[in-house]
Amino acid sequence: MLLALLPEVLLAGSGSNGFLGDKTRLGINFNPIISFARAPGVQTDNKGVRGGFQAGLQIDRYFATNYGFSTGIYFDYLGVNLVYHLNDTLGNLKSLNHKYITQFLEIPLGLKLRTNEFKKITAYGELGLTPMLLLSARANYSNDFDDSLKTQIKVYGSRVNFFDLATHVGAGIEYNISGKTSVIAGVIFKYAFLNHIKDSTSKAYKGKPTGLLNDQVFLSYFSFRIGILF
């Protein structure tokens, strides 16, 4: 529904000011990221958080004074740390550590609500969906019982799903510095609900199968927005 309405919203009201008009604002963001996995299965656990970053173009289009759509195009560099628990042939519990480093292209689309400006400050909140397309992926594998089996491989398309979809919610402030130009700061939480790992069968240990790891893994991350709007 939102995707169907977006072209009309972007084109509406451009008038004599050209395509962008007075109701459209463009921004540049560079956003630090803290990402982690949600692993509800019995064999898999999240192992801490990973740092990353996000950079891209923000597009806000207002259809009323305080209400509009927010979209854009962003490049994400992030990852997750996982530990898998398996029993060896003697029944001893062993741990396999998988560290995934991924790059995504995302095009979020959400509704944005903002307050009236007060002493150059405008507060905003937003809610929407974020499609994510995988650009590349790498994985570091290690374990707690054989250091010789540590390795790093490219896993694009074979272990990490090409497409993910997240819901996002965020809030922040805009500080006007001149005319329509504002500095922005905020935080967005993204909660993906498609399985992040396509096939968790461990094949990375020099061809030695280690068992089936079929637990689902879901991506979540906080993005700390820093940028400027024009």
Tell me about this structure:
The protein contains one helix and eleven strands; from the N terminus they run αβββββββββββ. It has one helix at 2-11; strands at residues 24-38, 44-46, 50-64, 67-87, 93-106, 109-114, 121-143, 151-154, 163-178, 181-192, 218-229. The longest helix has 10 residues, at 2-11. Strands 1, 2, 3, 4, 5, 6, 7, 8, 9, 10 and 11 form an eleven-stranded antiparallel β-sheet that branches. By secondary structure, the chain is mainly beta. The protein has one domain (23-229): Porin (Beta Barrel). It is 4% helix and 61% strand. It is elongated, with a radius of gyration of 21 Å.
Determine the structural class based on helices, strands and strand pairing.
Answer: mainly beta
Q: Which CATH C-level class is it?
A: Mainly Beta
Give a count of the beta strands, DSSP E runs of length 2 or more. 11
In helices, the fraction of residues equals: under 10%
Average residue pLDDT? 82
Poorly predicted sequence stretches spanning 5 or more consecutive residues: 12-19, 201-212
Instruction: Using the alpha-carbon principal axes, give the shape.
Output: elongated
Number of helices: 1
Computed CA radius of gyration, to the nearest angstrom:
21 Å
Give the count of structural domains: 1
Largest sheet, in brief, is: 11 strands, antiparallel
